[in-house]
Amino acid sequence: MLPEHGRTAQDLLAELSALKAADLPVRGGKVTAYVYDTGRPEVHETAHRAYAEMLEVNMLDPTAFPSMVAIEKQVVGAVAELLGRPDAPGIFTSGGTESIMLAVKAARDSGPGGGEIVLPVTAHPAFHKAAHYLGLEVVPVPVDPVTFKVSAEAVEAAITGRTVLVVASAPSYPQGVIDPIEEIAALASARGVLCHVDACVGGWLLPWLREAGAAVPPFDLSVPGVTSISCDLHKFGYAPKGASVLLFRDAGLRRKAYFASAAWPGYTIINATVQSSRSAGPLGGAWGTLQALGTQGYQELGRTTLEATRRLVKGVGAIPGLRVLGEPESSLVAIAGSPEVDVFVVSDEARRLGWFLQPQLSYAGIPANLHITVTGVTLSGVDALLEVIAAATEAARAKGPAVVPDGLPELIAGLDLDALDDATFAELAASVGIDLRGSGGAGQPEMAVVNAVLDALPAPTREAILVRFLSVMYS
C-alpha cells in the first residue's frame, strides 16, 4: 500500500529488518544453497559499496555511461583469462539463466534453421526455459546411473539435422560431476554443431580447485569444439546477486546473441542482454568483489573449499543410512538416503536445528537426495554441519519416512488444475494439511510431506502444481 505521506529511511529500514526476520540467513554457512559466503565480511561490504556506487547507472546505452563499458571489459576479461581464452568476447548478464538464454539464442540464430537442443537430463532447467521462450525443442539424454555423467556416444546418437546446440555441464548442479567435455565438444564439432558448456556453478570455482590439487579435467574455451561457456560470478565469484558472464568463441557468435530494432520512430534499440534498461549495480558489485579478493584471495578460498568438501564427503560416508551420489568433482555434494532414512525428513530435522539442506526430487532413475553447496565459509563449520546431518538422520530414522495420504498422488494427477482458481486450489491443499497461505500454527505440515507428494508425481504434474503454489503464494 502506498502511504499518504513519505516515510523516513529509519522507519523503512526497521520494517525491512522485521520482514526479513523469517528469512534464511545469508551469512555463516548454515544455509547450504542459494547463498555464497566467503566468510570475509570486509569483501562483502566492499561489494555492497561498489554496487551502490553504480546503482543508478543505466546499462541501456553504453555511449551514455562509458564507466560501465570500462568495468564490463575488466570483468569479462578476468573471466576470459581464467577460462582458457583471454581474448574471448563476452557479455555481462544478470545470472546463469540469462547467460544460457543468450547462448541458446546465438545458437538458434547461427544454425541452419533447426530447432533442437541436445542435453543431459542433469542439465539445468534454464535450458528448458530458453527452449520454451525461443521456440526450440529439448532432446534429453540419460546419464550413467552410477557416475551421473552423460556419455559422448549417447549425445552423438541424439544429434540430428535439426540440432542447433549440444550442452554439457561443468559441473552439473544435482550431483556436482563434470560431463566429458572434450569428447562431447569434439563430436559436436565434427557434426558441425555448436557446443555450450554450462559452467555457471563451476566456471569461477574449478580453476581454483585445480590449483588447490583437485583433479579437474579440461572444460573451458581451451577445449577444441567448445563454442560458448557461462560462468556465474554471484556463485563462487562471491559477487552480489545479478552477476554472470557468457563467453563466446568469437565475436561473430556473440553478435548472434544481440538484439537490435530500428522499426520504430524512437531512440535506437540495441541490447546485449534480454533486458533493456538495467542497473549497473550488479556489475559494480562483481567488479568490486573481484578486485577486493584478487588472485590470492580466490586461491585461498579454493583451498578451503576443497578441504571442506573432502571432509564433508568422508564424514557423510560414515553416517549409517546415507551415501554420497557419484564422486563430486566440484564442491556440490548430493546425499541419498535409504529405506529407513527419508532424506526429506532429514531436511526437516536439520531445519529444526537451524540448518538448511536443499531437497532434490527423484528424476530419470536418480533417487531423491539432499544437495549441499560447499563455499568458502564452510570449512569453519564443517564439523558442526556433520553433527547436524548425523543428528537429523537419527531423528529421521526414528520418525520413519514421510507418509503420503493414500490415493493423493493419483487424485492430484487426475485434477483439471486449469479449472481451479487460486482460492479453490489453496482450499484443496489445506484439506490435506498443506497450508499454502503461510498462516502457520501447529497444523502446518512439514515440508517432507509436500516433497514426498511431489516426488510421487510425474514431472509435468509437478510443474503444474509448482506453478499453482507460486500463484497462491503471491495472491
Automatic annotation (TrEMBL):
Domain of life: Bacteria
GO molecular function: carboxy-lyase activity; transaminase activity
Presence of keyword Transferase: yes
UniProt cofactor(s): pyridoxal 5'-phosphate
Pfam families recorded: Aminotran_5
Domain Aminotransferase class V: from-to ranges: 78-253
Alphabetized InterPro entries for the sequence: Aminotrans_V_dom (IPR000192), GrpII_AminoAcid_Decarb (IPR050477), PyrdxlP-dep_Trfase (IPR015424), PyrdxlP-dep_Trfase_major (IPR015421), PyrdxlP-dep_Trfase_small (IPR015422)
UniProtKB keywords: Aminotransferase, Lyase, Pyridoxal phosphate, Transferase
Keyword Lipid metabolism: no
PANTHER family: PTHR42735, SPHINGOSINE-1-PHOSPHATE LYASE 1
Protein's name in the database: Aspartate aminotransferase family protein
